[in-house]
């Protein structure tokens, strides 16, 4: 249950499951906005056949509030027609972490707005962009607590060494997302 700001009454949370090229993505939210995107934990990367899976909502399609509809449309575009993501509205976010003013929120917003599709940034570079060059560790912590992965693209944050680093969905998923973006960006160029 997530309490809304006004009056603290709980949201009417809805859930949808999106079948994607990387497996089932669970999305939750309410009329106000998106609460969370849960990625499948992957130990191996999808190859050929699975990665060509169309994005379909396989659970919860009925009575989808607008933020969930926008989220599924955005994710479908991300996987299937990435060139169109820039023209789609981002869903509103309704997660407590993104409501209150904090360095974590600052880092997540900076990442969302400044690190574009097909780009990668180091933890230290993102700390610089967010206004605190000595906060690379705090950036790592912010990435771990990101409730809206893929849309807030924490997979684009890598180590200064070029190593991909950790990821909530597992290292293979992070590598797949980075590779997907690189390939799509080359096609769009």
UniProtKB/TrEMBL annotation:
Its EC number is 2.1.1.63. Its cofactor is Zn(2+). Involved in the cellular defense against the biological effects of O6-methylguanine (O6-MeG) and O4-methylthymine (O4-MeT) in DNA. Repairs the methylated nucleobase in DNA by stoichiometrically transferring the methyl group to a cysteine residue in the enzyme. This is a suicide reaction: the enzyme is irreversibly inactivated. This is Methylated-DNA--protein-cysteine methyltransferase. Gene3D superfamilies: Methylated DNA-protein cysteine methyltransferase domain (3.30.160.70), Winged helix-like DNA-binding domain superfamily/Winged helix DNA-binding domain (1.10.10.10). Keywords: DNA damage, DNA repair, DNA-binding, Metal-binding, Methyltransferase, Nucleus, Phosphoprotein, Transferase, Zinc. The keyword Metal-binding applies. Residues 105-182 form the Methylated-DNA-[protein]-cysteine S-methyltransferase DNA binding domain. It is found in: Nucleus. GO terms for cellular component: nucleoplasm. It catalyses: a 4-O-methyl-thymidine in DNA + L-cysteinyl-[protein] = a thymidine in DNA + S-methyl-L-cysteinyl-[protein]; a 6-O-methyl-2'-deoxyguanosine in DNA + L-cysteinyl-[protein] = S-methyl-L-cysteinyl-[protein] + a 2'-deoxyguanosine in DNA. GO terms for molecular function: DNA binding; metal ion binding; methylated-DNA-[protein]-cysteine S-methyltransferase activity. GO terms for biological process: DNA repair; methylation. It is an enzyme of class 2 (transferase). Belongs to the MGMT family. Residues 19-91 form the Methylguanine DNA methyltransferase ribonuclease-like domain. InterPro entries: MethylDNA_cys_MeTrfase_AS, MethylDNA_cys_MeTrfase_DNA-bd, MethylDNA_cys_MeTrfase_DNAb, MethylG_MeTrfase_N, MGMT_N_sf, WH-like_DNA-bd_sf. It comes from Rhipidura dahli.
